[in-house]
Amino acid sequence: MAENEDGSEKTESASSKKLQDARDKGNLPRSKDLSSALLLIVAAVTIYGTGTLLVRDLADSFNFNFLVEREDLFDLNRMIFHLYVSVVSIMDSMVLLMSVLAVAGIIGSVALGGLGFSWEPVTPKLSKMDPIAGLKRMFSVQSLVELFKSIAKVTLVGGVAFLVIRYFLPETLGLTFQSIELSLAHGIDIIIWSFIFISLALAFIAAIDVPFQVWSHKEKLKMTKQEVKDEFKQQEGDPQVRGRIRQLQRQAAMNRMMSDVPKADVIITNPTHFSVALKYDQSGGSAPVMLAKGGDFIALKIREVGNHYDIPVIQSPALARAIYFHTEIGDEIPEGLFKVVAQLLAYVYQLRNARMGAPMPGAMPSLDVPEEFQWDGS
């Protein structure tokens, strides 16, 4: 089981943050065997598809260079011309083959782990020059595993190559007795089948190596329980800091709420436990909006602000509780409370007009809160 430098066991799977950090540093699972197998398979398929073109170009080049006039052998310019013609004659088929192999090489290198770009692996580090650390890597379990993998790969591929050579040896020796065109075509056919058999061996190795590399990469990135806790704290923040932030947020929200209380038309109280401040825009035609609400100390502060700004404070325990528990700050009151709130606002406006010389209103109307909005104390 993987262990940390301090000896603690890495039992937890890597978090998404650690996986992303590893990707940013270029630490991705890779399989060289997958890339090699893909290259050989693509090479075999490409040669098989372009074999006729390649044979024709090679035959023309051989005929052109083997049938050389005597005077050309002693003329440097003619020999350079022969070289130029030979390169150009096989360029079209070779460029196609090399281009396909280049693309296959790129795809094979990023097929496992995906495409990633980072300067981290090539950044100079003094730790990479530490001879002790280098010796530890050389004699580590990972190096031992890689050594056995290399021996197994050489043995398997070498054995397959030996069997292929042994099987095609009579045909290979017989190429010397065939014409150029026929020997080239036959030789290309032998190369294609050799590629196929060796590719199958490498494909078998890649099929084993790919899951191993994925597993090994996950094992290297595993985390201890303490690392998981530290990362969570780093991402979420210290609990005390989070608590302080929430406290400041609540304080800021209360300050904003208190700043809206002077705009209220009426404050309804419990009278000691709850207070709500309502505002009604007569020109807008919408329902009354609750600007602020609070219980206990905050309820007292709302009443103090209301008294300071000469806002009517009405005691109606049932209505105060109904609005408090069924309305959020900034929202309109529920439709079921429209009637009773309208009665209250009408009474408040009559009081306001009385201050300006109008007749005093009578007793405050009975504010009957619908049963579904009454608070039962639960």
Automatic annotation (TrEMBL):
Which Pfam family is an annotated match for this chain, by its short name?
Bac_export_2
Report biased composition (Basic and acidic residues) as residue ranges.
18-29
Give the range the annotation lists for the signal sequence. none
- The primary site where this protein sits is membrane
Q: Where in the cell is it found?
A: Cell membrane
- Kindly give the membrane topology term recorded for this protein: Multi-pass membrane protein
UniProt record similarity statement: Belongs to the type III secretion exporter family.
Q: What is this protein called?
A: Flagellar biosynthetic protein FlhB
UniProt source species: Marinomonas hwangdonensis
